[in-house]
Amino acid sequence: MGLINKIFDKKAAPLLIAIYVLLFVAERRRKLRKPTEPLTKRIVINSIVAVPAFGLLRFVFLPAMVKLTLKNKTYGVGYLLPLPSFLRLICTFLILDYGNYLWHVLNHRVPLLWRFHVVHHTDLDLDTNTALRFHFGEMIGSVFFRGLFVLLSGATAKEVLAYELVFEAATQFHHSNMKLPAVTETYLNKLIVTPRMHGIHHSINKDETDSNYSVIFSFWDRMHQTFKINPYQNHIIIGVPEYRDAKQMTARYLLTMPFKKL
Length: 262
Ligand SMILES: [Zn+2]
What we know:
Helices cover about 65% and strands about 0% of the residues. The protein is mainly alpha-helical. It has one domain. Helix 2 packs parallel to helix 6 (about 135-155) and helix 4 packs antiparallel against helix 6. The termini are far apart. Zinc ion (ZN) binds near residues 117 and 201.
């Protein structure tokens, strides 16, 4: 899998670390929502939770997706429609991103998937650090579902890796607590998911959690009438109503949470 090493390890990973650092600094300067928990404690917990998920992403998810693209030279839009490479890339991004919208909806609606996804939502603050807090079980399930959309798109290995880079960067951006000018964010939000939009999805209010599932492009939520926006974020309480005890939320608890009685 030299391609993953060449594209992901040597180019995408350093770029993602740089984006993380920039967003981390930006969200300390101008905060969108007032933090409630000690930052260092959250960084430690979320980083520990991220280790097995990141390991699976790098050594299982990416190799599986790349292998799929190398084996498939027949199926999917990319092979059935003779598009120029730029249009083919756009088409791939749209199909893969729509797949991720549907995967996120399923994570909220299917009880077994929610057991894993809830770990991400139990963070009591929302910032770039929350973008690390994904349970490794969620990654295992996504291999099959997202793999299906890789096949549907007929993407090449390079296109899949390019999408993954933008997907990870978008995830960091929309989880950040960076306060952008409302006007700037309104314009950006016409096309992509922004921090205010995703902040609503992390609210303890069920009506708000059941909205804004998109990852990169915001129009999937508009298309499915699951779109909600509110420029004022101070009313939003981040988290899940049943899991408000910060002392209980250790890294060990979060990693074993999906296998316990919820
Ligand atoms: Zn969610």
